[in-house]
């Protein structure tokens, strides 16, 4: 209602209210390298297309004269009440889309009361992003490191800074095959930006120190990685560890050792359910496992003590040709029944998409690229508008479908789309 009223009063939105135009304008506002990393997907883009096609296979059947004049979008997740079922997904290297990305997104999240999941590869240390959230709840996303002490250190920092949940992403034990990034060389740049969370971590700095010492003593080879411009800001914290060296010579061993250490430890290719089982005794936070697609994995997640899962294919960035997350949701819900908490992301673009995902059994959804495009066009304000628009459309879809609250958004609201090709 507020969005329409503003329009009637002649107030033009800052960012386009439809995703297609938002995407076009964000592309124009970004460098080709940044665009390839953020908008791109794995392989030939089949998973990204699947994610969208899956929504087209369902049709909403609106209901009339139901008499509900107002809606309540609130939802309970992990023992806590949230104002709406929309969260902002963790997105690493966000600075590709705008300065001080995590802090800008956090301010927008706080202004709209939207929970934000901070990426392990965010561009601001989590403590700084947490400060920008005010009293709005936030979750921390972790990539399981090969260094177990670093896992504990990151969990401890998230707990101390006030996280409401810990999200462990399972689908990126190795990076997906992303031809556009490989062709343009965007990856080192993006990873350089996403290193800030690590270079602000005492355990990580300890590992860098060990590596520098090993190089100095001849026990390890001189680091041989490129330090991109993107990494420079994150690596400034290294200069506090090794004063006087870094700025003299970007090719000095410390920053390069930091990048090399990061590449070695950021994800564990051998991640197993046994690792995940240890989480329950390592944190008091609710645990959410992100990146689940198979019903058996969904079951296993709860068996090892997870409190929730995110059905996700990482926005189509990992396995090309993977099942659409919406299709996976249907199978996962069938396996788990109605009770366990299940979130969904990958392909959500509109309020009607949120409605469809909730009707198929998601308790809440996360937005990935949409809010990044808002950030690219108008910083904090752009993110706020993208979130407000999605919520406004969800609200009116509920209004026109006879759903006074989220409990009323269910399979009865949908049919398989008879018009789907
Ligand atoms: C991501 N995603 C992601 N996920 C995660 O757990 N940790 C991360 O650091 C990142 N980084 C990241 C960077 C970029 C540029 C993108 C686009 C995505 C995945 C993200 O959390 C989410 O699963 C998808 O973005 C959702 O799909 P849509 O909404 O982008 O289609």
From TrEMBL:
Catalytic residues as annotated in Swiss-Prot or TrEMBL: 314
Task: Write out the residues that bind glyoxylate.
Answer: 37, 143, 178, 314, 317
Q: Which stretches make up the FMN hydroxy acid dehydrogenase domain?
A: 11-419
Keywords assigned: Flavoprotein, FMN, Monooxygenase, Oxidoreductase
User: Which cofactor does this sequence's record say it needs?
Assistant: FMN
Stored InterPro entries: Aldolase_TIM, Alpha-hydoxy_acid_DH_FMN, FMN-dep_DH, FMN_HAD, FMN_hydac_DH_AS
Residues that, per the record, bind FMN: 90-92, 119, 141, 169, 290, 312, 345-349, 368-369
Q: Which GO terms describe its molecular function?
A: FMN binding; monooxygenase activity
Kindly give the Pfam families that the UniProt entry links to this protein. Answer: FMN_dh
Question: Of which family is this protein a member?
Answer: Belongs to the FMN-dependent alpha-hydroxy acid dehydrogenase family.
Q: What is this protein called?
A: Lactate 2-monooxygenase
Organism encoding this protein: Nocardioides flavescens
């Amino acid at each position: 209602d507020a969005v329409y009223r503003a329009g009637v009063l002649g107030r033009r939105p800052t960012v386009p209210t439809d995703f297609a135009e938002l995407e076009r304008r964000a592309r124009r506002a970004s460098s080709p390298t940044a665009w390839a990393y953020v908008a791109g997907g794995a392989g030939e883009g089949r998973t990204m297309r699947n994610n969208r096609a899956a929504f087209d296979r369902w049709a909403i059947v609106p209901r009339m004269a139901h008499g509900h004049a107002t809606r309540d979008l609130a939802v309970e997740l992990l023992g806590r009440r949230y104002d709406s079922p929309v969260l902002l997904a963790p997105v690493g290297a966000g600075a590709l889309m705008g300065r001080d990305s995590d802090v800008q997104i956090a301010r927008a999240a706080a202004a709209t009361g939207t929970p934000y999941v901070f990426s392990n590869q965010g561009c601001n240390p989590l403590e700084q992003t947490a400060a920008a959230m005010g009293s709005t709840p936030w979750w921390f996303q972790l990539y399981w490191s090969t260094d177990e002490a670093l896992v504990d250190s990151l969990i401890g920092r998230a707990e101390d800074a006030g996280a409401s949940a810990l999200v462990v992403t399972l689908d990126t034990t190795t990076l997906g095959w992303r031809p556009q990034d490989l062709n343009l060389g965007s990856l080192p740049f993006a990873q350089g930006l996403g290193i800030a969370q690590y270079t602000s971590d005492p355990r990580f700095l300890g590992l860098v120190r060990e590596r520098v010492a090993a190089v100095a003593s001849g026990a390890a080879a001189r680091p041989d990685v490129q330090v991109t411009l993107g990494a420079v800001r994150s690596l400034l914290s290294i200069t506090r560890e090794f004063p006087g060296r870094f700025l003299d010579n970007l090719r000095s061993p410390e920053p390069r050792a930091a990048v090399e250490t990061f590449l070695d430890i950021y994800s564990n290719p051998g991640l197993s359910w046994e690792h995940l089982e240890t989480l329950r005794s390592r944190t008091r936070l609710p645990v959410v496992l992100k990146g689940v697609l198979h019903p058996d994995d969904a079951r296993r997640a709860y068996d090892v003590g997870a409190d929730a899962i995110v059905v996700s294919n990482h926005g189509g960035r990992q396995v090309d040709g993977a099942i659409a997350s919406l299709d996976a949701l249907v199978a996962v819900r069938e396996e788990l029944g109605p009770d366990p908490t299940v979130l969904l992301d990958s392909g959500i673009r509109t309020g009607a998409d949120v409605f469809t995902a909730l009707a198929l059994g998601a308790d809440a959804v996360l937005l990935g690229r949409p809010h990044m495009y808002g950030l690219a066009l108008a910083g904090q304000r752009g993110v706020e508008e993208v979130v407000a628009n999605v919520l406004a459309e969800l609200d009116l879809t509920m209004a026109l479908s006879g759903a006074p609250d989220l409990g009323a958004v269910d399979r009865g609201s949908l049919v398989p789309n008879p018009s789907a090709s």
